[in-house]
Amino acid sequence: xxxIHSADWQLGCRFKNFGEKAELLRQAxxxxxxxxxxxxxxxxxxxxxxxxxxxxxxxxxxxxxxAAVAAFADFPEVSVYILPGNHDxxxxxxxVWNRKAFLDAPANIRVFREAGFVEVNGGFLLAxxxxxxxxxxxxxxxxVEMAKQLPKGSSLVGVTHGSLAIPGQYQPxxxxxxxxxxxxxxxDYLGVGHWHNWQVYDNGRLVMPGTPEQDxxxxxGAGSIAHxxxxxxxxxxxxxxxxxxxxxxxxxxxxxxxxxxxxxxLQAAVADLSTExxxxxxxVRMQGSATQEVLVPAREWLGELLKPFQxxxxxxxxxxxxTRAELEHLKAGHPILAQVLADLxxxxxxxxxxxxxxPAPEPLSPSQVDKVLNNAPIDxxxxxxxHFELARQLLLQKFQERT
Length: 403
Ligand SMILES: [Mn+2]
Known about the structure:
By secondary structure, the chain is of the alpha/beta class. It is built from 11 helices and 17 strands. Bound molecules: manganese (II) ion.
């Protein structure tokens, strides 16, 4: 038995933060769906499984529904098995599964509106679809009884949707699936959907492939479908992670401590994405503090760098550095702050050779500096001037926030 297992396409996702450009991201998913169907055809899979959340919700736009069904219809040799998930549960006549496009669907599409099984190339596909958005019940429990009804020795594949019951990592009302659910029901493979990063449990028998298209900066294990080969009941499944995603979500930092270095680094990183500027979502976090003379050109340069990309955002977390007069005023009013800054300068002067322009009335001696550094859990050879500048900035920033 050969399968393609996918989940969490969330077609029709609104991507509210992207305004009119959201349509490009929605279209990208439909193209990726066709690419996945192409993979299934090329590998002559017996089943193309969608383990829940094909659609973002039951109210999805009609044009997305017809585009999805048209994609399946264009691959008549691919047998598509669809399971309603928590985003698109089968709730009866109002659900997306009862729209005309699905009621009149071509013969290669089967939607599991109810729990049940179907024979596929000598093995069986067992489905436990969702009928609501939340439940504390493990939807894979149904497989235990279902599997007992099937002929002994045949390959058994479960398909359901829910969170993995990893202690501390799931909500109790979010369809918690036992981590040994495949073994518990004597399944050879349990294809699950819900979370967006690739994960494997139960000795390789329980797989959550994640979303085929990354949809947030935090996801690093998204963008794949699973190609699964079963050699017979009891044999371990052979699972291959197949990358199909096209949109790359990347976060980069730009720290004003070293604007020249930051420019060089960012330019190199972005160059890699610039071959396909429409399929990269870029976020640049600009950090640190600097004077307006440094900040303004840096912002302009970043704006130019990101211009070719459809989806980019500059997240400005910078602060304007204090002028010399402002700093002196602050120090005059807060002698302890003045002393700490002076001590920091003195430690920097001894350890990385920075010039101390503002020695304190009672500067630290070399032996006192040694004592401070030896007591700190720091490898002295790795200290640079930038560390001291950052410490200064953080100190001033925190101080200003509090006063
Ligand atoms: Mn889900």
